[in-house]
């Protein structure tokens, strides 16, 4: 499969959509298309001097759940670390991982684009 995408999750997604490969492809396409806006929303929510922890929580949940469904395990793990820090009230700890989340998110999107022959 790829270094950033877990094939088992993609097979599970296909099963969840009743074997409809076009629906699976659309879900993956949406993940890729929404990546940039999700990462921007998260950065804005965690921005100094007035971070919005509630908005960051919502965005991180969205990133985590969609990453799990497409098999982007490193994205999900990084978002989980950020989410844990946020839940502990450590906004600075969450912010420290934004660059890594963006990096692995872009790598996962690149792999998905290649795997599904998507336009970006």
From TrEMBL:
Annotated InterPro entries: HPT_dom_sf
BP GO annotations: phosphorelay signal transduction system
Name of the protein described by the UniProt record: Hpt domain-containing protein
Biological source species: Cryobacterium adonitolivorans
Upper taxonomic lineage: Bacteria, Bacillati, Actinomycetota, Actinomycetes, Micrococcales
